[in-house]
Design a protein that fits this description.
The complex is a heterotrimer of chains A (355), B (83) and C (270). Chain A contains twelve helices and 16 strands. Chain A is an alpha/beta fold. In chain A, strands 2, 3, 4, 5, 6, 7, 8 and 14 form an eight-stranded mixed sheet that branches. In chain A, strands 11-13-12-15-16 form a five-stranded mixed sheet, with helices on both faces. A two-stranded antiparallel sheet of chain A has the order 1-9. Chain B has 83 residues and is of the alpha+beta class. Chain B starts with a strand and ends with a strand. Chain C has 270 residues and is an alpha/beta fold. The chains are: A alpha/beta (355), B alpha+beta (83), C alpha/beta (270). Chains in contact: A-C, B-C. At the A-C interface, helix 3, helix 4 and strand 10 of A face strand 2, strand 3, helix 2 and helix 4 of C. Strand 5 of chain B pairs antiparallel with strand 1 of chain C, so a sheet runs across the interface.
Chain lengths: 355, 83, 270
């Protein structure tokens, strides 16, 4: 069992993290840059180190895979699937149903350049799709955004915990860079949380039977169900916001970034500080629920300048603007096509803004 | 509950008239012609089927074909005299 | 004629009666629809096998979407066409459960064709019952992949055109060409007109009952089972109930010949 440091790729770390979290089933479909996840799992399948990992199956499409996930999840098992943008689009139907059916499964999106086939570079353009629901109907998933290989290893366990606690799908939104990045990672010993699943459909018990359905033709029934989902999302919003800050206590300008971009921004903050600019970094860890509370507290503290840095044409920036509520300026730096901005670009732009 | 049964002798067909949709599949399948749609309507607006032990072609034999062709569980039970 | 009169209450035995595997709720199916008949056959088989408490019904999208309202087992309602994939997921985690789906021809043969074929290829120990009424029923009568050439539907008001849409697709034949399935059968389920007499044959129900039982037994023995039931849709075919049985018997059986296509375990020989 790996407890010492391992020098692994993000995708591999995520796979191993899922195994250590006691994942029972994985349904696969290859798509670059996420394929190392199923490949790692296939290698470890049948390993005596992971007795909980009982099912590995490659499906004929991402659509087939997410529906296998729905099936396995309905029995109360810990299930995961991973993909990238084009496949993530295919899984939206399944995620919408999963949310309506209140199933606790994990979907990993290794965000690559889009829309369409795009290319294999990193982007953060699936943010809307993941956080606002790329599937139909009014639902919300919990979305976790790792920014290191260590977090790639840790987030499956966190994801399962949140998924089963709140009975909803959880999306881990990483990016192509993070998926391929290799870093020293410490794998903690396996501590698998057990979850109660009284709702699972595993056969009637006497007169009692469970039906997991998303169709409620009677408007009163459906409205009750929808209100229940709403109150669940409110509860999640109240209790599960997660974020990280760096040097914000005396900052005049705060960068807001998630994923690999937050690493660049951290470096930019150091460089800015060396130049005398009191910069800080706010990193959302949960993209949904968006960490509005903590962000607002920065505004309340008197910080008036925010700079959002994203690899897309502007998605998280809207959530930041909403949180800031017009009490400060929110600028936006972006890079597209698979490029990462150089930290020097961020530095010069923030310097300009802070003057 | 709206069940009807004819004067019974060797067998009896119990019908839940309130779920019958008058599709007449049982009527046309019964070899003895023991079943006929009634003149009256049930609560859902169909002419429910009625059982007549002495059918046009003979007495009911509890063959059960009506039970097997009914799409609505309106033919609820087929009973026969204990041997 | 309408007096309820038990000759002697204890004098009768119930030869065929109410089932614990049915909820008893009246169905939403149209008058004369084979969905109702199949529901009865399924409930009967589950009761006979005594497997109610280890059965999971997977509802598809179409007229069978409310199947769980009638069949009294645990149930999961899934997206259009996806039932075989969902059943695979359930069965992989819980191979001890009996898992089956009732799918319409639109659900299984159009949008769900990939899921159906791959589950069959893998020989997943699941059961699919295909209710083929050659049209999209629940949505109001649009063309289905199984709609006969020339048939008027709401999306082919000119009659289904061979040149544009190709001929109707035979799912049973498609599956019969695969190695994975253990039991592939097509049953003519409706009552069938019998020539000169005005009596209709109920053989479809009886054969259907046996086929459903066989299909479950094949799954319990670890095989993929598939039974297609040629059915009718009088409302969307714009025919009376009995006219639709005649149409199915004269036209559909020629396009979709009933028969036993695969029986790897020899379940029908028992």
């Amino acid at each position: 069992m790996k407890t010492e440091k391992e020098f692994v790729k993000g995708n591999e770390a995520l796979a191993l993290g899922a195994l250590r979290a006691g994942m029972n089933a994985y349904f696969a479909y290859p798509i670059t840059p996420s394929s190392e996840i199923p490949e790692t799992l296939a290698r470890e399948f049948k390993s005596p180190e992971y007795p909980e990992f009982k099912i590995f199956l490659q499906a004929a499409s991402e659509l087939e895979a997410i529906n296998m996930v729905i099936g396995a999840s309905s029995t109360g098992a810990k299930v995961m699937t991973a993909t990238s943008g084009p496949g993530f689009s295919l899984k939206q139907e399944g995620i919408s149903y999963g949310a309506a059916m209140e199933l606790p499964f994990l979907v990993v999106d290794i965000n690559r350049v889009g829309p369409g086939l795009g290319n294999l570079g990193p982007e953060q353009s699936d943010y809307f799709q993941a956080t606002k629901g790329g599937g139909h109907g009014g639902y919300r998933s919990i979305v976790l955004a790792p920014n290191s290989v260590q977090e790639m290893a840790a987030f499956p366990a966190l994801g399962f915990s949140l998924a089963f606690k709140h009975r909803c799908p959880v999306v881990i939104l990483a990016d192509a860079f993070l998926g391929q990045l290799k870093e020293d990672t410490t794998f903690p010993k396996i501590a698998q949380e057990q979850f109660e699943t009284p709702w699972a459909t595993t056969g009637a018990r006497g007169a009692e039977r469970h039906v997991i359905a998303s169709l409620h033709l009677d408007f009163a029934d459906q409205s009750k169900h929808s209100e229940h989902l709403m109150s669940k999302y409110e509860e999640v919003d109240k209790t599960e916001q997660r974020s990280e800050e760096y040097l914000t206590s005396d900052a005049e300008v705060v960068l807001v970034a998630f994923g690999v971009v937050s690493r660049l921004c951290r470096r930019a903050v150091k460089e800015l500080r060396a130049k005398g600019v009191r910069a800080g970094l706010f990193r959302p860890v949960t993209l949904s629920p968006f960490p509005t509370k903590e962000l607002k507290s920065l505004v309340d503290r008197g910080i008036k300048k925010f700079v959002v840095v994203e690899l897309n044409v502007g998605q998280m920036v809207f959530d930041v603007r909403l949180a800031v509520e017009g009490k400060g300026s929110v600028d936006f730096i972006h890079r597209l096509g698979g490029f990462l901005p150089a930290s020097s670009d961020i530095v010069s732009r923030v310097e300009m803004i802070s003057r | 509950m709206g069940q009807t049964a004819g004067l019974v002798q060797k067998s009896m067909v119990i019908i839940d008239t309130e779920v019958c949709k008058g599709c007449s599949l049982c009527v046309v399948s019964c070899p003895q012609k023991n079943l006929k749609l009634s003149e009256g309507l049930n609560r859902i607006g169909y002419h429910p089927v009625q059982f007549h032990y002495h059918g046009e072609k003979g007495d009911c034999t509890a063959c059960g074909l009506c039970y097997w062709v009914c799409p609505d569980f309106a033919i609820a039970e087929v009973r026969r005299l204990k041997q | 004629m309408t007096t309820l009169q038990d000759k002697a209450a204890g004098g009768y035995e119930v030869k065929l009666g109410r089932l614990s595997t049915l909820t008893g709720k009246p169905t939403h199916y149209c008058a004369g629809c084979e969905h109702g008949v199949l529901t009865r056959l399924i409930a009967n088989a589950l009761e006979e096998l005594g497997v109610r408490e280890k059965t999971v019904l997977v509802d598809s999208v179409g007229c069978s979407v409310l199947a769980h309202d009638y069949i009294n087992t645990d149930a999961v309602q899934v997206p259009h066409g996806r039932a075989p994939a969902v059943m695979t997921g359930i069965k992989k985690v819980r191979p001890d459960l009996l898992v089956f789906a009732v799918q319409g021809d639109g659900d299984a043969v159009s949008i769900g064709l990939l899921e159906l074929i791959y589950a069959a290829i893998r020989g997943e120990p699941i059961t699919v019952f295909l209710v083929n009424n050659a049209i999209y029923g629940m949505t109001g009568g649009q063309m289905a992949p199984t709609t006969p050439t020339g048939m008027v539907t709401t999306t082919t008001p000119w009659g289904r055109n061979l040149k544009d849409t190709g001929p109707p697709l035979d799912a049973t034949k498609l599956l019969a060409g695969l190695e994975g399935p253990s039991y592939v059968k097509r049953v003519f389920l409706p009552v069938a007109p019998m020539g000169s007499t005005d009596l209709y044959s109920a053989r479809g129900s009886l054969e259907g009952a046996k086929s459903v039982l066989n299909a479950f037994e094949v799954q319990l023995k670890g095989g993929f089972s598939f039974v297609e039931f040629i059915s009718t849709c009088s409302v969307n075919w714009k025919m009376s109930v009995l006219e639709s049985k005649r149409y199915a018997s004269e036209v559909l059986t020629k396009i979709f010949p009933p028969g036993l296509y695969i029986d790897k375990m020899g379940i029908e020989k028992k």
